[in-house]
Design goal:
Rossmann fold; alpha+beta; BirA Bifunctional Protein, domain 2; 15 helices; 3 domains; 5-stranded mixed sheet; single chain
């Protein structure tokens, strides 16, 4: 492709509203163009990258016996009512009306479509297990579409669904797909972590996310480098480290005046104790329960996902107005000597069990208790792991330090069980003549999101650095100096490489060397070739690999062999 004919040129500056590296570089380099918040046009180079990402995914899904199909984006609302997700996903569903005043939604996912489709096309237990997938567009009315193509309202996704007669068979296939996902991300030039993540407030099961480390990540993951394991921050487990507690006697409980702010830091400073000596109370409003107090060490935070999983209820932090209504004094709440009229149940994290002589609120304005001890001064209804793990904790398996990393979620796999097959009455008569439950798994990869992730993970201050596997072109050819002999040799190289089937972008513009070289770095094609009077004086071209800092000259007679070697490695 000659650059002069290319739709989608580089621009001098990034759009003012580009809020991430991928938004800035993909737009500035001419790969995408923003139409509206969370909605992007993919220009020819962007489409080439997206196609290559999809081809890698397609190849790996075919290797695990996936069968590709294509399902409608427009769904009758009735199928969403069957599963109940018309309510639970109401905040992100795009809804519309068709002829005859029929209600429809634009599909954010396709469980509601694929389940009845397979029910009506699977005739025997002998047909299972099977797996089907598609590469299609999804719609979700994201309230905060941001981070370029990482979080869109219209986006590409590969979604695959597997169907099984036993949970054991689902488990086995789940592991096969997990390995295929690692292969996908590796082939896209990414190092991924598999992370156990929450299955939600109403499920004992966990999903697994695949995340790639990058400072632009929306998620925080907890990694043990020694074990090569990662966990989502929301449910991560680890050993709490320090501070070392000296053996001390329980001292007498005292109530003292405490003119301070609400923070743990201010409390610890006032009483000249470490934050670990503060008994922190966090009060939640729990669905169908009311208020619940959670006690935790002052230097730690409560994981609300762990708390929801423990309670199997939805919850939210109690508002100042609600605390006041129940007679609770914000900033001074504790389970110690609570007035009867404002008493609430308490659970606690295990972190408070080995600390003596806590400091905590006295349930009165500007009054604290000091020398508070569990068992003697207050009781807890139950203990469980509620702590939000962070850097400095130790791995439960090997005791190595855990590290927090920002990461982008690039894929998700989940065992659905029989939730959708039960809703659509999808059962099969087994070999023994009895009706059998059909179990499902679902497996998603955001295709457009993956394009953005590659950019976030592979760039420098000058632009994108595309891995060869997904680059729009393999070779970026450009000339320096408007010289007939230079242009003649560049045309010959361009035509020769095209005839060999090598993807090449030829910058044939009459622009300054600085503009052409800067644009080449911005676009990020793996190999740059420069033809100039100087190189031709040595019967050579300048050879520069985008991911490397040095360049060299290659003789034109050796060029074909050198390029083939470069592409094969």
């Amino acid at each position: 492709m000659k650059y002069s004919n290319l739709v989608g040129k580089t621009r001098l500056d990034a759009p003012s509203d580009a809020d991430s590296v991928n938004a800035r570089l993909l737009t500035q380099a001419g790969f995408v163009e923003k139409l509206a918040a969370g909605i992007y046009n993919y220009l020819p180079m962007g489409k080439k990258v997206l196609d290559k990402v999809c081809d890698i995914i397609r190849d790996e899904m075919n290797k695990v016996d996936g069968q590709e199909l294509f399902m409608p984006i427009l769904h009758p609302v009735s199928i969403w009512e069957t599963t109940g997700r018309i309510k639970t996903m109401d905040d992100v569903l795009y809804k519309t009306k068709g002829a005859g005043d029929k209600d429809f939604v634009l599909g954010p996912s396709h469980e509601e479509t694929v389940t009845p489709l397979l029910r009506d096309n699977v005739n025997s237990y002998k047909d299972l297990p099977l797996s089907v997938y598609q590469l299609a567009t999804k719609f979700r009315d994201e309230p905060r579409a941001k981070s370029g193509v990482l979080r869109g309202r219209e986006f590409g996704m590969k979604d695959m669904y597997s169907f099984h007669l036993t949970e054991e068979d689902l488990d086995e296939y789940y592991e096969r797909v997990s390995e295929a996902y690692f292969n996908v991300f590796k082939r896209c030039g990414l190092k991924s972590h598999i992370i156990e993540a929450s299955g939600g407030a109403f499920s004992d099961k966990f999903s697994h996310e695949f995340s790639v480390e990058t400072p632009a990540g929306e998620d925080t993951i907890i990694v043990c480098e020694k074990c090569n394991t990662a966990q989502n921050l929301e449910i991560a487990e680890g050993k709490i480290v320090g501070p070392d507690e000296k053996e001390e006697e329980e001292r007498a409980l005292e109530m003292v005046e405490a003119k301070r702010g609400f923070s743990v830091e201010e409390n610890a400073k006032l009483h000249s104790v470490p934050e670990s000596k503060i008994l922190k109370s966090v009060v939640y409003e729990v669905e169908e329960v009311g208020l619940l107090g959670v006690a935790i060490r002052g230097d730690l935070n409560v994981s609300e996902v762990k708390l929801e999983n423990y309670l199997k209820k939805q919850l939210r932090p109690a508002s100042p107005e609600l605390l006041k209504k129940h007679g609770l004094v914000q900033g001074f709440i504790s389970p110690v000597n609570m007035p009867e009229e404002s008493k609430i149940p308490y659970i606690a994290d295990h972190s408070i069990t080995n600390i003596k002589n806590f400091v905590t609120g006295a349930n009165q304005p500007e009054m604290d208790y000091v020398n508070v001890n569990l068992g003697r001064d207050f009781q807890i209804d139950d203990f469980t792991d509620l702590v939000e793990v962070k850097s400095g904790f130790e791995c439960n398996k090997c005791s190595s330090p855990l590290t927090e990393m920002k990461a982008i979620e690039v894929g998700n796999i989940f065992k659905l069980g029989s939730r959708y097959t039960d809703a659509f009455k999808f059962k099969l008569t087994g070999k023994d003549g009895t009706l059998k439950t059909v179990y499902m798994g679902c497996y998603g990869i955001g295709t457009t999101r993956l394009v953005g992730t590659v950019v976030e993970a592979s760039h420098d201050e000058n632009g994108i650095i595309w891995p060869k596997s997904v680059a729009p072109y393999m070779v970026h050819l450009l000339t320096i100096g408007n010289d007939d002999n230079v242009n003649k040799h560049a045309d010959e190289i361009y035509n020769s490489l095209k005839e060999q089937g090598i993807e090449i972008l030829f910058d044939d513009r009459d622009e300054s060397p600085g503009v052409k070289l800067k644009d080449a770095d911005l676009i990020g094609i793996p190999l740059r070739l420069v033809v100039s009077k100087r190189t031709l004086s040595e019967n050579s071209v300048e050879w520069k690999v985008r991911a490397e800092s040095d360049s060299k000259n290659i003789r034109i007679s050796d060029l074909d062999t050198e390029i083939q070697d470069f592409l094969s490695n």
